Amino acid sequence: MTALRKRCRCRDWRCDHWWFADFRVRGRRYRIPLKTANKNLAAQLATVERNSLLKARYGIFQQPDVAFSAFAKDYLKDHVAVNTRPGTLAREQEIVKTLTRVFGSTRSRRIVSSNTSVTASPGDGGLTARFPQASP
Ligand SMILES: [Zn+2]
To answer: Torsion angle, CA of 111/29/86/60, rounded to 10 degrees?
Structure first.
């Protein structure tokens, strides 16, 4: 989960100091200054920061040539578990389990996100997996 924190010691959290996003990605802790004292805005910025960090640093959606089973495991752990509700996680786990039975050892060439549903299909020389995009 992404937490919002202040680093100052003011008694009232509505002070004019900046909010910081505080979260973990694969065991690493990140504290990002959000450059605003507005809590609602900070919460939105924190979500954006975290998502772009996941995409940029770990290539969640564009991991080349990784076995589908390995990708699916990371997808559930780093993406679904942190970005969606518990009910969604349970549903995704079931779907991924089924897909892994079929595509487990297939190398994934292209993994893309979509807003529809979880599907996977063998394409030219590789697998294309489609996962729903997380809604914050
Ligand atoms: Zn303060």
So the answer is: 0
Where is 121: in which H helix or E strand?
strand 119-123
SS3 49: helix
Give the Å distance between the CA of 30 and the centre of ligand 1: 20
d(CA 136, CA 88): 13
Number of H helices, E strands in the chain: 4, 7
pLDDT in tens, 6-59: 999 999 989 999 999 998 877 778 888 999 999 999 998 898 888 877 776 655
Which residues are within 5 Å of ligand 1 (an ion), measured at CB?
8, 10, 15, 17
**What pLDDT is attached to residue 41?**
92
CA dist 12 and 130 (Å) reads 45
pLDDT of the residue at 63: 47
